[in-house]
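Board notes, transcribed. Complex of a protein with iron/sulfur cluster.
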Amino acid sequence: MVGDRAIAPAELLGPPYAPASPAPFVSSETLLRVQNLKVEFHTDEGVVRAVDDVSFDVRPGETLGIVGESGSGKSVTSMAILGLLPRYAHVSGEVYYRERELITMKPKELRNIRGKNIAMIFQDALASLNPVFRVGDQIAEAIKVHNPDIGRRELHDRVCELLDLVGIPNPSERAQQYPHEFSGGMRQRVMIAMSISNEPDVLIADEPTTALDVTIQAQVMEVIERIQDRTNSAIVLITHDLGVVAGVADRVMVMYAGRQAELGSIDQIFYEPKHPYTRGLLASLPRLDRRTRDDRLHRIKGQPPSLIYVPTGCPFHPRCPYAEVPGVCDSTRPPFLQIETTQWSACHFATELDEREPAET
Ligand code: SF4
């Protein structure tokens, strides 16, 4: 029940869950390990399966890019890791920061980890900063929460050091200004300064460059990389833009309809993709070597599915040029299976895609 509304059983409202796939872990030395994570929202219309059996890990000094269209479950995954979802969200699975499990952790304990050991850069800097407080005070607050005994002088120096680190000139004066006195790129730098204020081991960056022009995007990504070089932190970079991950990620996880479609090293994803959705995303990127008018941008036909009425079998089958329909693709959910040492794909034909003839789109 939600309030006085009866919720229909989940099994009547969408395809049943497949058995959990073997988790795609690459190392025992992980800082963050997510295992069979599921997030559901029970609504009047049915159960929204926003994240469905997602597993991955991130090592120190590594950048994992999570890519997918809007509504693919990227941001909900990051919010679930940090315990930031509303209470009506049904979260299951396991999330380990080092040896500590976060999903079942008491809220007070989780608050000690959040912002200190695992921090997040949110996508909308203007909405995330409080307009009525000075930028320096907001960064100082983030430091004081985890260091209540820090002295005034030390706090001021630390704020200036952080602003300087993210490339904001005249940090002492800028700390006295309000968010509206900063440009979009500078506000995003302030957000980065806040998120790294306690030198977290894991930094989750949720669309950190959305709404910024490409020059500022590059500068913000450079700041994040510089910080990683200094702290050896693990970065989870969430974006809808494959171009952003191309320059900075070590590995990439592609999500579709709340599930993992593919996971692999940056070279595997860009040069040997083993999932038709990844191929579609890559083909839809603008390329400088396309010169003729006929050489049009590729598009993936159709729309992402509703997360209440996820298609049976493979959720991508209504849009997939390689689908065997009717057949295995609309009847059986593909497991997320290991193809190479560091590459996984949820496609029945992952190893035969090159031999298959795609349908016209
Ligand atoms: Fe396409 Fe079938 Fe592979 Fe799904 S399982 S991606 S529908 S070929």
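Residues 1-19 have pLDDT under 50 and may be disordered. DSSP finds twelve helices and twelve strands in the chain.
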